[in-house]
Every structure is written in C-alpha cells, then in structure tokens.
Amino acid sequence: MLSDRVQSLTPSLTLGISSKAKQMKREGIAVINLSIGEPDFWTPAAIKAAGIDAIEQNLTKYDAAVGTVDLRRAICDKLASENQLDYTPEQIVVSSGAKYALTNTLLTITNPGDEVIIPAPYWLSYPEMVKLTGGVARFVETDFANDFKMTADQLKAAINDKTKAVIINNPSNPTGAVYQKDELMALAEVCLANDIYIIADEIYERICYLDHFTSVAQLSTAIKEKTILINGMSKSLSMTGWRLGYAAAQPAIAKSMGAIQGHLVSHPCTIAQHAAIVGLQSCQADIAEMKRVYRRRRDTAIELINAIDGLSIVQPDGAFYIFINVSHYRTKIAAESLSLKICDDMLAEKQVALVPGIAFGNDDFIRLSYAAKLEDIKAGLARLKDYLAQY
Ligand SMILES: Cc1ncc(COP(=O)(O)O)c(C=O)c1O
After folding, report:
1. Whether the CB of 205 sits within 6 Å of ligand 1
2. What span, in angstroms and rounded, lies between the C-alpha atoms of 203 and 98?
C-alpha cells in the first residue's frame, strides 16, 4: 500500500530516544535529557514581540514563494556584515526550516540516480533527504584522528561521473568539529575541478567558538557560484518552532527553488518571517550571551568526560554537541550495537538520554547535547561515569 519511497526510509533514532524520554517524564521519572538538538533558551523577547506585532498588523496573508522581500533583504545584510558575502534578495529563498531548504536544494539540482557525497558521521536526515528526492547517498568515512573532517583526497576518491554534489556541514552535527579555511579551500578546489555543487549547511555558524568562522562561499567567486549556502534561525536565534531557514545561491538555482516551493508549500509562515527580521537585525546581544553559556557548558563537559576512564572526544569548536568515543568498551560490553546498548541502558538504568552514534553512521560513539542546564550536564556525566565503572 505504501510507496517504495516511504518504505526505504530509516526511522529516526533520535526521535525514538526523545519520545522514550518524554514518555518516562510523563510517568513521573526525572529524566536528564542530553539528547536534544534544540537550544534550551526561550526565543528572545524582541522576536516574540515582533511576532505578536505581525499578527496585529494583519501580516497574515499569502506572500512571495521565495519569502518576503523584507526578510530576504535582512538576510542579505546579515550575510554581508557577518560573512562578507554579497548576495541580492533574488538569490535568497526562505523556507520552513533549514530542513526544507536542504530538501528543496536537492530537488533543484539532482536528477534520479545522481550521487550526493555525505561525509560520515553525518546528521541523520541527510541520507533520508537524498533518498526521498531520488538521489543516491555516497558516504565518505572520515577519520577520528582528523576530528572526522573529510580531506580533499577522501573527497576526490568518492567522486565519479554520477556525482552531483557534496554536503559540507560546518560546524558539524554530531561532532561539533569546525573546518578551517585551508581545509575548506582544499575541498572546494576538488569540487570546482570536478564541477560538483557544494551544499554548505552552516546552520550552527553563529555557535562557533573559534576566533573566526569561514563560510565556504567566502573562498572565491567561482566557489560561491557552485555553493548553495544553507542557514536558518532555529539554532542561533532559538527559533526552532517558528520554522525558518534559508538558502543563498546563484539566481537560476534560487529561482527554481522558489518555483518548487511555490507549488509544494507556497512559502513559510509570514508571521514568523516578520519576527525573524528583528532577530537578524537586533539580537546580537542574545546570540552572544547564548554562545557564552554554551561555551562554559562545553568546557565543563569536556573536563568531566576526560575524567572518565576510556573515553575520548572529537574537539568541539562549534554547535552544542560532543561526540564521545566509547570504543574502549567494545570488548567489555556485549551488544550488537555498542552505542545503542549504552544509550538504552543509560536511559533505562540511569535516566539519562543520549543519542547512539550509530544514528549518525558511527557505532563507536555516543552524542551528548549540551543544550541543557549545567547541573543536568554534570549530573548526567556523573551517571555515565557510574554506568561505565561497572565494566
Ligand atoms: C546539521 C543540521 N542541519 C539542519 C537542521 C535543521 O534545522 P531547521 O530547524 O532549520 O530545519 C538541523 C537541526 O537539527 C541540523 O542539525
């Protein structure tokens, strides 16, 4: 009864874990949730006020498929001032979350059977998006020793005549690793030489702890032409439920993405778009404060993880995740999937929700999200230490 498309989908392990955790909470069990990919801050007050204002001004009607011109202008201003990138509003497509910006990008640039390179470990929606849009995911296994960052040689080796694009997620979910300018340049040059698109998912860009963040599109005009830049409001402005993301691309791509979006969803919510303008223009202090808090939690979490026997981590220079290497326990804990076993046990026995690395394509790791209160991070890691001590 159901399409092949639907039957090929892999159920989301992260959603599975979080619904189990929620069910336990409903049953009155005090679960510490370190699994969530969502800021634990409220949306800044100025954005909420702008949303209410939009309703009162009756900005509640259909608008342009690519997003309101005012928001697209504000996005261009943000890209110019923060990323030194010159885009016009015709090159911006606002959508319902970065998720749909990514899906729409794939619909726009790939034909059935085209390959899309995904470095592993990967954010778990990428392979499903590629499958759903008719493409074929080609995974590149990256090395822990290189913080799971793909090298130019690894990328080159994965390219064939069916390759259409590569997805570069920077900063990375699940590892938190950030590509440096020279690393990005080496990858981008391979893409240019082989005429493939770069889908640059930079949704965690504003949660980067390095002095400087390089956007792929900044590297050169030629690279910018081949890049579809993906970003959004969910993570940096704590606007997850407002569902706003965007793509910046060459005009022909942006126009086609607008045409697809027009038919499939019309456009994202106009009220949310109105509010996001305020978010882009006047919430720098909120963004800086959230980053300061995340950094403090990250530093504490790293210290606590390093004090647990047998664990090691990927250096997290961005986002709000720590990818923890648990492979030391592979010979001690009997299980078909080590990461799943640890996460299942931690939830059932210690009431701590973490995400198994197998969901991101690497069973030797578990992912901790520090988008949670410091006390919860400390208590959660104390329980992890306790759990592992029995082995
Ligand atoms: C790497 C990455 N890209 C995109 C998204 C989607 O974000 P949005 O809420 O804008 O759809 C997420 C959300 O978890 C993410 O982790």
Report:
1. no
2. 7
Nearest residue by C-alpha to atom 1 in ligand 1? 173
- State the residue for tokens 């986002």: 319
CB 133 within 8 A of CB 102: no
> What is the mean pLDDT of the segment spanning 110-125?
97
Which of 18, 99, 206 for mutating ligand 1's site (highest number of atoms within 8 Å of CB)?
A: 99
Among residues 273, 272, 224, 214, which one has the least CA distance to residue 248?
A: 224
Average pLDDT value for the chain: 96
Q: How far apart are CA 179 and CA 166, in angstroms?
A: 15
pTM, full prediction: 0.96
- Residue of 314, 44, 318 lying closest to 204 (CA atoms): 318
Closest CA to 311 of 321, 320, 323: 323
**Percent of the chain whose pLDDT exceeds 90:** 94
What is the distance between the alpha carbons of residues 75 and 281, in angstroms, rounded to a whole number?
A: 9
- Three-state SS string over 125-144 comes to HHHHHHHHCCCEEEEEECCH
Q: Which of 283, 322, 318 is nearest to 304 (CA)?
A: 322
Q: At what angle do helices 97-109 and 125-132 cross, to 10 degrees?
A: 40
**Average pLDDT, integer, range 10-16:** 78
Question: Does the pLDDT of residue 184 top 90, yes or no?
Answer: yes
Q: Is 370 helix (H, G, I), strand (E, B) or coil?
A: coil
Contact criterion met (CB below 8 Å) for 88 and 102: no
State which of 13, 123, 172 you would mutate to test the pocket of ligand 1, scoring each by most atoms of that ligand within 8 A of its C-beta: 123
Atom number of ligand 1 nearest to Cα 233 = 10
Q: Is the pLDDT of residue 42 over 80?
A: yes
How many angstroms separate the CA atoms of 205 and 61, rounded?
Answer: 31
Handedness of CA 189, 192, 195, 198 (dihedral sign): positive
Name residues whose C-beta falls within 8 Å of residue 299's C-beta, 6 or more positions apart in sequence. none
φ and ψ at residue 366, rounded to 5 degrees: -125, 150
The predicted structure's pLDDT at residue 235:
95
CB 47 within 8 A of CB 32: no
With a 6 Å cutoff on the Cβ, whether 97 touches ligand 1 is yes
Q: Is 234 in the pocket of ligand 1 (CB under 6 A)?
A: yes
Q: What angle do CA 369, 372, 376 make, to 5 degrees?
A: 105
For residue 100, give the ligand 1 atom closest to its CA.
Answer: 11
